[in-house]
Design goal:
- The protein has a three-stranded antiparallel β-sheet with strand order 1-2-3.
- By secondary structure, it is an all-alpha fold.
- The chain is built from 15 helices and three strands.
- Helix content is about 55%, strand content about 0%.
- Helix 7 packs antiparallel against helix 12 and helix 11 packs across helix 13.
- It binds acetyl coenzyme *A.
- The site of acetyl coenzyme *A has 18 residues, from helix 14.
- Acetyl coenzyme *A binds next to helix 14.
Length: about 375
Amino acid sequence: MNDFKPGLEGVVAVETAVAAPDREGGALRYRGYDIEDLVGRYPYENIWGLLVDDDIDSKMPDPEPYVPQGLTGNAPADLQSEVAHLAGEWRLQKLVDIDDAQARTDLGRLSAQMMGIVARSAALAEGREPAPDDVVARGETAAEKFLLRWRGEANPDHVKAIDTYWICTAEHGLNASTFTARIIASTGADTGAAMSGAVGALSGPLHGGAPARVLPMLDEVARTHDPEGYVQSLLERHQRIMGFGHRVYRAEDPRARLLRRTAQELGSPRFEVAEELERVALAALREYKPDRPLETNVEFWSAVVLDVADIPHDLTPAMFACARVAGWSAHILEEKRTGRLIRPSAQYVGPAERPASAVDGAPVPS
Ligand code: ACO
């Protein structure tokens, strides 16, 4: 029987108690709590605790003093390499050799440090010196500390934008990067290897890189005042409209709803053009693919919210990685507890058995 599913769509690969995206788009729940009820009530670090420890009063720890060496200013690449490096620097042990409590400690240390690495990489890209530890320590929340490290100051609207974005994107079931993290964890590797691999998976435009491509779309529409023409020209060239469509949702992504509201509350200067492009794109996509719902996904409004905090668009994959450290950590721990190597099968579709003498130019046996 041929049960191969391209892209593993619809294939159940793991059981999880961390979060459940609701396919019809009603809600996204973290450990049973609707994210609508969490945003604004708890800061990101408590959401980390909720996802990892199933305890909203538990928190991601504060970052410990550490100055990464060899940053390049390319934040996803810096994050990927520095996290792998930290595994060596901190002598993190393999998941198979440690208990759950130690794995949780390692994941907390890494998560907190990952935000600092992105902040430092962003500062470097702008040619500024990252703020010292005493300035960062003045921040109350993870989002505030992140901005303080990067810019030496933390505008409250920027903090709200980042905190909301991080909470909305902290976890989302078995997406490509989380699956990657679980696969690596299932081999018994250390937590640094699992987190670093996840960052690599997330850096692609079809997963975490989409917001970086949304703002240029908004710029183009603001310049031409012709959203219809812009959208049609993309579809005629069979290009994808970034920020639309989703592997799971067949309705509006609930995170898009929350982030749209946040963009409006924060007075985003791009709100109107984004709303206009969204309206036009949805209408065009309905006509283009009448049988496949292609609705707004989290990335579209993420781009607008992050823009409120003056996040350069090429930094958005790394911002997404900062958010997702919670989901990755929770899934790595869950995977560790299963103790089962992930190793699916491939269906061989190559040539049938053939002799080496059939290769062109093969030496003739003497
Ligand atoms: N614009 C135009 N056409 C689209 C879009 C889009 N945004 N999304 C899907 N389609 C089309 C595809 O071209 C395909 O058409 P075809 O059958 O003629 O080839 C059809 O709809 C089905 O698309 P798939 O790629 O099979 O759908 P899948 O579930 O694999 O894709 C994905 C989901 C990758 C998110 C896709 O919708 C996409 O590329 N969107 C744009 C990128 C984006 O916004 N990424 C962020 C996703 S959210 C996240 O990762 C957190």
